[in-house]
Amino acid sequence: MSRKPFTGGELNILNGKMGISAADRSVPVSRLVRYHKPKSPTELEELISDHIDGGCPCGCVSKGTVQDFGKNLYKSQLEFWGEFKYSLKECIQWEYDLFVLQMLKGNNMEDKCQSELQKKIGNSYCVENTNRFIDEEFRVDLEVYESNSLILGIQVKPSSFCGVRQSVQEFNINANKKYKKPVFYVYYDYDTEQFLNIEKLVEIIKEQD
């Protein structure tokens, strides 16, 4: 996972507009990762392939392999642009970066945030992973409780999220607004894996007392 994935550019626009990576048209990869906890890119890629026929207790069903999703992205260019701007190899690499590298990094950083935050705020609080519904409906990765009472939700994102398209940010913000508590964004540096504003979150949590 040393290579930084690239999931931006024109292919990101194409992927979004054509719904290539939508969970119901590809694979609910976030749920897959949470359930099986793959440790390597190869393991995650194989998990996606192994779930094509379904039948797993995790409930995930894949509509194809990562290569299939890349082919779908490649073919969609003709309908969207009227030409092939990118090669099949580039499209498969783009979907691989999205489904495998970026997903693994994001999941690892959520776990790291949970662990670090728990140590910083102490045992008077509990930091927990959210369930599938809360994650997908409200875009909340973690929840903080005090005496079984929910304080706030957390979304863990790379600092580059601040530079993504406004429509992507607004989609998350609108989902957050439907959540029953405030949602705080914890940002991290992709290369160093250091959290940039976790101390501010600690202050906010302790101010709830």
Structure description:
The mean pLDDT is 93. The relative contact order is 0.11. Helix 3 crosses helix 5. This protein has 209 residues and is of the alpha+beta class. It is built from eight helices and four strands, in the order αααααβαββαβα. The chain is globular and about 60 Å long. It has two domains: 9-105, no CATH class; 107-207, Trna Endonuclease, Chain: A, domain 1 (3-Layer(aba) Sandwich). Strands 1-2-3-4 form a four-stranded mixed beta sheet, with helices on one face. The longest helix is centred in the middle third of the chain and has 34 residues, at 88-121. Helices cover 51% and strands 12% of the residues. A hairpin with a 2-residue loop joins strand 2 and strand 3 (149-158). It has helices spanning 9-18, 29-36, 41-50, 66-81, 88-121, 132-138, 166-177, 198-207, and strands spanning 125-129, 142-146, 149-158, 183-188.
Task: Describe the structure using short key phrases.
209 residues; alpha+beta; Trna Endonuclease, Chain: A, domain 1; 8 helices; 51% helix; 12% strand; globular
